[in-house]
Amino acid sequence: MRWSNRLAHLFVCASLMLAPFVAQAATEEDPWESLNRPIFRFNDLLDTYALKPLAQGYQAVTPQFLEDGIHNMFRNAGDVGNLANDVLQAKPRAAGIDTARLMFNTTFGLFGFFDVGTKMGLQRNDEDFGQTLGYWGTGSGPYVMLPFLGPSTLRDAPSKYVDSFTEPYRYINHIPTRNVGFGLDIIDTRASLLSSEKLISGDKYVFIRNAYLQNREFKVKDGQVEDDF
């Protein structure tokens, strides 16, 4: 879930983007590096001694089919945000696909435990309000490392609050249930990224920063990014 996963997303974009994108430091996009680096070190320390061990333990004791099903359920809940931003970006085809995914996965997929939508050829979109702002021409602004929440930009950081209105946690009044779901969501996401850490090389801060910025540009432009080569 976007709002609750940003601590784990310290590694998300780094795992998605490979070394060719991170060879050069985009210092012109990171004028606040002197502030961002200490925050990054704090986040990395927290991940190393808390989040990562929890994720490793979760992965060790959870059967693969159950881990996959839980992951699918969180993704299914996240499709609500995808759909909302499809509409805000005036993408009727994507909105139709995400609507169908929600319907089929929530019903036939048992609240998303089984991703029947993908098996039916309904490929999941990945949209958020930061991408919506970018789609309509808002620049990303400087790179920002947020405490606990990880990499972001001046455009994307406040957009997380807007996206939180599409998350179920705002509407769960039973505090224990809300906290368990919140925590499991974070741990599940971090566990799914454990195998991606080997992609990180060199200066971890620079790698993750450039990977994040490249990935966000790719998403905002729907993959239509000019190759530097």
Key structural traits:
229 residues, two-stranded antiparallel sheet, globular, mainly alpha
Descriptive notes:
- The chain is mainly α.
- It has one domain (29-219).
- Helices cover 56% and strands 3% of the residues.
- The chain contains nine helices and two strands; from the N terminus they run H-H-H-H-H-H-E-E-H-H-H.
- Strands 1-2 form a two-stranded antiparallel ribbon.
- Strand 1 and strand 2 (150-153) form a beta hairpin.
- Helix 2 (33-61) crosses helix 8.
- The radius of gyration is 18 Å and the shape is globular.
Structural class: mainly alpha
Order of helices and strands: HHHHHHEEHHH
Strand segment count: 2
> What's the total helix number?
9
- Helical amount among residues, as a percent range? 55-70%
Q: What is the total number of structural domains?
A: 1
Portion in beta strands? under 5%
Strand order in the largest sheet: 1-2
Instruction: State the end-to-end distance.
Output: 35 Å
Topology record:
Blueprint: H1 12-16, H2 33-61, H3 64-88, H4 92-107, H5 116-119, H6 129-135, E1 143-146, E2 150-153, H7 156-163, H8 175-192, H9 204-220
Antiparallel strand pairs: 1-2
What's the short story on this structure?
Pfam families: MlaA (PF04333). By secondary structure, this protein is mainly α.
